[in-house]
Specification:
This protein has 255 residues and is an alpha/beta fold. It contains eleven helices and eight strands. The protein has an eight-stranded parallel beta sheet. It is globular. It binds phosphoenolpyruvate. Phosphoenolpyruvate binds next to β8.
């Protein structure tokens, strides 16, 4: 399989979470196809595992990449209910979201487990959208940078510089996910600049400048433009608003 090389680009990815059965998936994809893209953003959707193949087939001719919401770190074996990188690849899926805060909170995903998942994804030639972000209590205590740094260093900083061609970062403050409360554009920019700087220090300017860093947390058609106008914000990971074709494309076209 050929690897997708990441040079910094605009990306808008819709995380459908545990929503949409087969009928709703078919309907939403056909509605998405009726939307017109006027921006240069790469468009991705992440349906549930059960609808990946259908979504992949339904978007084969379109400018929409179908990505997975999660995968296991093992190549195969006795892990009932889990899905491997090889299984995703066998469908043609090339990108996987890892480390979403809901996975961390409800399924006890640790930085250490995520580091293993990232290694497995890369070893299988996949690219990773790696999610991380602080809790409200961290921000209130002024520890948001420290927490984010810890998540990034623990999960990613064992990688080689060239591995980052296959990594997209998604900063998602937990307090802004699904709450309707968005980080201000300035808060997003400050954190994204902090993250880019961290990779400049740990690696080099090439790694830092080529990283696509997405913001996630209650991005909607009415706030996307302002958030995306910030220099270190390269796109968005969109939950609720990705379930409505018109809203999702309004966000895609906010670039
Ligand atoms: C998400 O779940 O990644 C997310 C950003 O959700 P929402 O847009 O609904 O806040």
């Amino acid at each position: 399989m050929s690897r997708v090389k990441i040079m910094r680009k605009h990306i808008v990815a819709g995380n459908w979470k545990m929503n949409n059965g087969l009928v709703q998936t078919t309907t939403l994809i056909s509605e998405l196809k009726q939307q017109v893209k006027t921006s240069d953003a790469e468009v991705m959707i992440a349906p549930s595992f059960t609808n990946l193949w259908h979504a992949f087939e339904a978007t084969r001719q379109d400018d929409i990449e179908v990505v997975a919401q999660n995968m296991h770190f093992a190549e195969n074996g006795a892990y009932t209910g889990e899905v491997s990188a090889g299984m995703l690849k066998s469908l043609g899926i090339k990108t996987v979201i890892l480390g979403h805060s809901e996975r961390r909170a409800y399924f006890n995903e640790t930085d250490e487990a995520l580091a293993k998942k990232i290694d497995t994804a890369l070893a299988n030639g996949m690219r990773v959208i790696f999610c991380f972000g602080e809790e409200l209590s961290d921000r209130k205590a002024g520890k948001h940078e420290e927490v984010v740094k810890g998540q990034l260093v623990n999960a990613l900083c064992h990688l080689k510089a060239e591995d980052f061609e296959h990594i997209v970062l998604a900063y998602e403050p937990v307090w802004a996910i699904g709450t309707g409360e968005t980080a201000t554009p300035e808060q997003a920019q400050d954190m994204h600049a902090f993250i880019r700087n961290l990779f400049r220090e740990r690696y080099d300017a090439n790694v830092a400048d080529n990283l696509s860093i997405l913001y996630g947390g209650s991005v909607k058609p009415n706030n996307a433009k302002e958030i995306f106008s910030k220099p270190d914000v390269d796109g968005g990971l969109i939950g609720g608003a990705s379930l409505k074709a018109e809203d999702f494309y309004a966000i895609v076209n906010a670039f």
